[in-house]
From TrEMBL, chain A:
<dbReference type="InterPro" id="IPR029055">
    <property type="entry name" value="Ntn_hydrolases_N"/>
</dbReference>
<feature type="active site" description="Nucleophile">
    <location>
        <position position="146"/>
    </location>
</feature>
<keyword id="KW-0378">Hydrolase</keyword>
<dbReference type="GO" id="GO:0004067">
    <property type="term" value="F:asparaginase activity"/>
</dbReference>
<dbReference type="InterPro" id="IPR000246">
    <property type="entry name" value="Peptidase_T2"/>
</dbReference>
<dbReference type="GO" id="GO:0008798">
    <property type="term" value="F:beta-aspartyl-peptidase activity"/>
</dbReference>
<dbReference type="GO" id="GO:0006508">
    <property type="term" value="P:proteolysis"/>
</dbReference>
<keyword id="KW-0068">Autocatalytic cleavage</keyword>
<protein>
    <recommendedName>
        <fullName>beta-aspartyl-peptidase</fullName>
        <ecNumber>3.4.19.5</ecNumber>
    </recommendedName>
</protein>
<dbReference type="Pfam" id="PF01112">
    <property type="entry name" value="Asparaginase_2"/>
</dbReference>
<feature type="binding site">
    <location>
        <begin position="196"/>
        <end position="199"/>
    </location>
    <ligand>
        <name>substrate</name>
    </ligand>
</feature>
<keyword id="KW-0645">Protease</keyword>
<feature type="binding site">
    <location>
        <begin position="174"/>
        <end position="177"/>
    </location>
    <ligand>
        <name>substrate</name>
    </ligand>
</feature>
<feature type="site" description="Cleavage; by autolysis">
    <location>
        <begin position="145"/>
        <end position="146"/>
    </location>
</feature>
<comment type="subunit">
    <text>Heterotetramer of two alpha and two beta chains arranged as a dimer of alpha/beta heterodimers.</text>
</comment>
Length: 276, 372
């Protein structure tokens, strides 16, 4: 899994979608049929407006389409053929579906089929990866992941954005937590949250909304709320999140072996890490 | 309190000029669905089985029912032809004649499934979700066009797949793999909705919870000026669409289910709140909630989850949580919900003009209503 917190927000998720090392946009993991079905979501914590898309196979930047749904339609969530049609109406960049498929992900799908499982991103590195031994020693770490970003701007506005290819070997048509407002993505006046991990677990725990609700209804701090959700509400090995609060607090808890993450704040603090 | 409790809804937002006969029909349909659930609860069915059954039956259309009589302890004399004008609870067993031949697509409560709203392209895309509060397992489906019983497919996703949510072609393929009943998509398309779609396009609006039969359009002309806004687009007042059920069973287990055709004239591929866990449907060990109304507003408010979160994190009662969610979290005029708690309480709340609903508890209380 992978997530970033930036002080700027906005275009960061697009950058990561274009990077084949992450499970979003190009580099998305494959369905059981070897196809790509991408989903993304964006939420503005000030207006509570949101946009989400699922089942994309030709749109280069799913997060930008999600933003267009938010800004240019009376709806919040468009999926599959309807979302693709909307993309063409809006003139967003579309390419052949093969653009998104990488050799590493073809291999990951084969591994998953051999093991007969559905994987969070993947649990084994591609063959030939020099970090293979380390990964196995760590119990099969994820090495790429869903991309997410939460941000607090200089006007005090909070926003959250998440983008993913989903789970390796997922059933065609499977939707995960990323585009479900309140599960993988949420923002309001208290905080912005982007979660990642096993979508089904994040959906039933309404992870992103839970963090905000604990702050709002129970008066917990961002760190306390996020830690509680990750430790108590989601089974171990299933989730991580990044979150930022209205007063600039940042937290990045996870109950998996590791999570790619980075954050920075205006006062100059920054960090980038993978493990605990 | 304790004991089982059940509530069923048929949509929020009712045209104040809805003809009385349609109001009565709505009451009868709601009671029918309610009694189905009550029978199942009395047979010790589990909460999740009951919600699926009630929503399933409520979604079937084009069915002819034979004459039947249902007992009703009616606490809402205005909605039943019992003739009582008293505000005191009606203590009389009232037998309601359930019409001998009734096409359920005209019945507001039965308009998910057959009678589903049409997309801008004149197609049908149905959504449903179900959640079992005792395990928090859930199943959801979207974009169905040939599956006869969307709620049962949602249950299959929950029980028989490694996932929680399947949509469009993938969901249709899953349905066929598991032998779900498949029909031609034309089964779900009724003439009344073809007419409504045309009206919606002419009014350039997206309609939710329509109340108005296509023939009676002119009787509501006077209401046309007071258009309710949705997503900045004027909407007319319509007949309900979404069907939902919440149950707490005799063992205190809660479950919720919701099923819909969505909004008339919606964009193809548009998903609303009904299949989104935490928005239109939610259940945990404390309560179960099913919401209805303008999907986008319900999603922004994460309405169903918020009721539970308010109870869990603020320690308030079901009633207080529902009041807060409806009046402080949800944009005005945009929806309603039904909810049960694990100690046998059941409630309905809405900020629209009316909501089709019926409630019952094990101690014999029963009510059916449309208005405040």
């Amino acid at each position: 899994m992978c997530a970033f917190v930036f002080w700027e927000g906005g275009y960061q998720v697009r950058e990561l979608e274009n990077d084949p090392n992450f499970n979003a946009g190009r580099g998305s993991v494959l369905t059981s049929q070897g196809t790509v079905e991408m989903e993304a979501c964006i939420m503005d914590g000030t207006t509570m407006k949101c946009g989400a898309v699922s089942g994309l196979s030709t749109v280069v930047n799913a997060i930008s389409l999600a933003r267009l749904v938010m800004e240019k339609t009376p709806h919040i969530y468009l999926a599959f053929d309807g979302a693709e049609a909307f993309a063409r109406e809006q003139g967003v960049e579309t390419v052949d579906p093969n653009h998104f498929v990488t050799p590493e992900n073809i291999e990951r799908l084969e591994q998953a089929k051999e093991a007969n499982r559905v994987q969070i991103d993947f649990t084994q590195p591609a063959k030939g990866d020099i970090r293979k031994e380390n990964a196995e020693a760590n119990g099969g770490d994820s090495q790429i992941g869903t991309v997410g970003c939460v941000a607090l701007d200089s006007h005090g506005n909070l926003a959250s954005a998440t983008s993913t290819g989903g789970l390796v070997n997922k059933m065609v048509g499977r939707i995960g937590d990323t585009p479900v407002i309140g599960a993988g993505t949420y923002a309001n006046s208290y905080c912005a949250v982007s979660a990642t991990g096993k979508g089904e677990a994040i959906i039933k725990a309404t992870v992103a909304r839970e963090v905000a609700a604990l702050m709002e209804y129970k008066g917990l701090s961002l760190k306390e709320a996020a830690a509680y959700v990750i430790e108590e509400k989601v089974a171990k090995g299933n989730a991580g999140l990044v979150a930022v609060s209205a007063n600039g607090e940042v937290t990045m808890p996870f109950n998996t072996t590791g999570m790619f993450r980075a954050c920075a704040t205006e006062d100059g603090h920054s960090e980038i890490s993978i493990w605990n | 309190m304790g004991g089982w409790a059940i509530a069923v809804h048929g949509g929020a937002g009712i045209d104040p000029s809805l003809p009385l006969q349609r109001q009565e029909e709505a009451c009868q349909a709601l009671l029918s669905a309610l009694h189905l659930g009550i029978s199942a609860l009395r047979s010790a069915s589990s909460a999740v089985d009951v919600v699926e059954l009630v929503v399933l039956e409520s979604s079937k259309g084009r069915q002819k029912r034979s004459s039947g009589y249902w007992p009703c302890n009616c606490f809402r004399p205005n909605c039943c032809p019992c003739g009582s004008n008293s505000l005191d609870p009606c203590l009389w067993i009232l037998w309601i004649r359930f019409g001998s031949v009734r096409e359920l697509e005209l019945n507001p409560l039965f308009n998910s499934g057959c009678g589903s709203a049409l997309t801008a392209q004149g197609t049908v895309e149905m959504d449903a979700s179900i959640m079992d509060g005792s395990t928090r397992k859930c199943g959801a489906v979207s974009g169905l066009s040939t599956v006869k019983n969307p709620i049962s497919l949602a249950r299959l996703v929950m029980d028989k797949s490694p996932h929680a949510y399947l949509a469009f072609d993938g969901a249709e393929a899953f349905a066929r793999q598991h032998g779900a009943e498949i029909v031609d998509t034309s089964f779900f398309i009724i003439e009344e909705n073809v007419i409504r779609l045309k009206q919606a396009k002419e009014a350039k609006s997206i309609q939710f919870d329509y109340r108005l039969p296509s023939k009676g359009w002119d009787t509501c002309a006077s209401e046309a000026e007071q258009m309710v806004q949705m997503n900045g687009v004027p909407i007319s007042l319509y007949s309900p669409e979404t069907v939902g059920c919440v149950v707490v069973d005799a063992l205190g287990r809660c479950a919720a289910a919701t099923s819909t055709g969505g909004l008339i004239n919606k964009m193809c591929g548009r998903i609303g709140d009904s299949p989104l866990i935490g928005a239109g449907t939610y259940a945990c060990n404390i309560c179960a909630v099913s919401a209805t109304g303008e999907g986008e507003a319900i999603i922004r408010a994460t309405l169903a989850r918020d009721v539970a979160a308010l109870m869990e994190f603020k320690g308030i009662s079901l009633k207080e949580a529902v009041d807060c969610a409806i009046h402080e979290r949800l944009e005005d005029g945009k929806g309603g919900l039904i909810a049960v708690s694990n100690d046998g309480h059941v409630i309905c709340g809405f900020n629209t003009t009316g909501m089709f609903r019926a409630l019952a508890t094990e101690d014999g209380h029963m009510e059916v209503g449309l208005w405040d």
